[in-house]
Amino acid sequence: MTTPTEDSSLPEQLQVRRDKRARLLAAGNDPYPISVDRTHSAAQVHAQWGHLVAGDETDEVVGVSGRVVFIRNTGKLCFATLQDGFTRDDSGTRLQVMISLAEVGEQRLADWKADVDLGDFVFVKGKVISSRRGELSVLATEWQLASKALRPLPTLHKDLGEETRVRQRYADLVARPEARDMVRTRATIVRSIRETLHDQGYLEVETPILQLVHGGAAARPFRTHLNAFDIPMTLRIAIELYLKRAIVGGVDRVYEMGRIFRNEGIDSSHSAEFTMLEAYQSWGDQFTIATMTRDLIVNAADALGVESVDTPAGEVQLTGDWAWVSVYPGLSEALGEEITPDTSVERLRTIADARGVEYDPAWIDQKLVLELFGEIVEPTLVQPTFVNGYPAIAQPLARNNPGDARLVEAWDLIIGGVERGTGFSELIDPVIQRDVLVAQSLKAAAGDLEAMQLDEDFLRALEFGAPPMGGMGLGIDRTIMLFTGAGIRETILFPLLKPHS
C-alpha cells in the first residue's frame, strides 16, 4: 500500500525527498520558511575571520545560510559545506558548518541526519572557529532548513555535458564556477559598454520590440498576430529605424541594447534571439562611429583586466591601432589580380570555381564579390580590422560613396576572423531612402523572405530632416564570445533550444 505522498512514477531519490517534505509538514515544521536570521554571507565570514589558524575559536556568533554542496554525517559530529549565491564581486563562496551533539543536542543532530540532503538550503547559527584541520567553520548552536530541494544536485566533481548545461542552466550555475564566471563576465562587459556610452554623451532609450513593419536589416522575422487590433505583427529584426526617428526628433546621441529576433538558422554562433547594441551619433560618419566602437571593445577589455584574447584564428591584440581594409583592394591582394566594381560577373564566377567557393548562378557581380571576400579574406583578418568600401548591395541603409555610387560608406568589424559589428555613414536623403526601401519591398513581394518592408512612418520621419550621422551595431553575444572563447549557447544565460521529443 502506498502513502498519499507516494507517486510510483517518480524515481526513488525524488520520492524520498518528497516524503521528507511531507513528514516535516505533518510535524508542523515548514521546509520553506519565509525568512531566516542571516547575519553574514560566507564571503563576509572569510573576510573577517579568514586569519584563524587550526584550532582557533572565537566567541563571535553569526547566522549563515547557503546551499548544501557537501555533507558528511558521522556519529557525534556532522560536517557540511554551504555555497553562497554569486554576486558581481563573488563567484559563490563556500563555508564549512559543523553540527555537533554537544552543541545542538541529540534530537537536532538526529534531525539533521534525517532531514538534510545535498542541494537543500539551510541556516546555521553558531560560533566562528577554525577546525582541527584549519578549515574556517561555523560551529552550530542551532540550525534550520531554509528550503528543501526535491531534486538531487548534479554530481559536482564531474563535468556536465553541454546539452545538460544549457538546458538546465540553473543546475550548471550551482555545479560549475565557469558558468557563474560567464554570467559575471557578461555583466562586466555590458556595464562597461553602458559606461563608455554614457561618458561619451549617449542617451539610452527603449524602442518597440513588437512592430508593424520589419526593417533595419535583411533577415527573416518571426510573425505574430495582435488580437486587440486584429493585425499581423512581427518581432523586431533590428533597432535601427526607431533610433533614427529619435535622431530626427533631436536626440543627439542615442543607443539601445536589447533583444533581436530572427527566424533563421541556429548554430554555434547564431541564435534565434540575441542581444544587439545599436548606437547613432549626429554629425558623425563611419569613421567617428568606428572610433567609438573601438572604445567600447578596448574599455571592456580594460574592465576585464586583459589586453589580448585567444581565438581559434590566433591571439588578438586589442590595444593599439586597428587596421582598415577595403573590400576590392583586399580581395585583389588575396587573389593576386585586380578586382574592381567593373570586373565582370563571368570573371568572378571563374575565380569562385577555381577557389572552390560555392555561389548561386543568379547572383550579380556585387554579391559574388561579397561571397569571395567572406570566404577568402575575412578568415585571415585575425587582428581587429574595419572592412569598408563594400558594394552597395551589402548595406541598403548606408550612404553611397561620393566618388562611386556602386560602393557604400560602411564597415564590418572583423576580429579573429569573425564579424563582430557593423557601422555606417547613414543614408539621410529621404528620396533615395524611399527608392531603396521600395526596391526592398519589391523583393519581398517577389518572395525574398529577408527583404525589408516599406516603412512609410520611417520615411515620413526622414522627410522632417535628419542631420548627417554615423551609426553602428555590435553583437553583444559575439563580443562575449570574443572575450571568453565560448560558443553562443554558453554566453546566453538561457538560450533557445530545440525541445526534447
From TrEMBL:
SUPFAM superfamilies: Class II aaRS and biotin synthetases, Nucleic acid-binding proteins
Protein residues bound to Mg(2+) 2: E419
UniProt keyword annotations, A-Z: Aminoacyl-tRNA synthetase, ATP-binding, Cytoplasm, Ligase, Magnesium, Metal-binding, Nucleotide-binding, Protein biosynthesis
Annotated GO biological process: lysyl-tRNA aminoacylation
Residues of the Aminoacyl-transfer RNA synthetases class-II family profile domain: 184-499
Subunit structure: Homodimer.
Similarity section: Belongs to the class-II aminoacyl-tRNA synthetase family.
Cofactors that this protein relies on: Mg(2+)
InterPro entries per the UniProt record, alphabetical: Aa-tRNA-synt_II, aa-tRNA-synth_II, aa-tRNA-synth_II/BPL/LPL, Lys-tRNA-ligase_II, Lys-tRNA-ligase_II_N, Lys-tRNA-synth_II_C, NA-bd_OB-fold, NA-bd_OB_tRNA
Protein's gene: lysS
Organism lineage string: Bacteria, Bacillati, Actinomycetota, Actinomycetes, Propionibacteriales
Catalytic activity: tRNA(Lys) + L-lysine + ATP = L-lysyl-tRNA(Lys) + AMP + diphosphate
NCBIfam families according to UniProt: lysS_bact, PRK00484.1
Native organism: Micropruina glycogenica
GO MF assignments: ATP binding; lysine-tRNA ligase activity; magnesium ion binding; tRNA binding
The protein's name: Lysine--tRNA ligase
PANTHER family hit by this protein: LYSINE--TRNA LIGASE, CHLOROPLASTIC_MITOCHONDRIAL, LYSYL-TRNA SYNTHETASE
HAMAP family in alphabetical order: Lys_tRNA_synth_class2
Pfam families: tRNA-synt_2 (PF00152), tRNA_anti-codon (PF01336)
Binding-site residues for Mg(2+) 1, renumbered to this chain: D412, E419
GO cellular component: cytosol
E.C. designation(s): 6.1.1.6
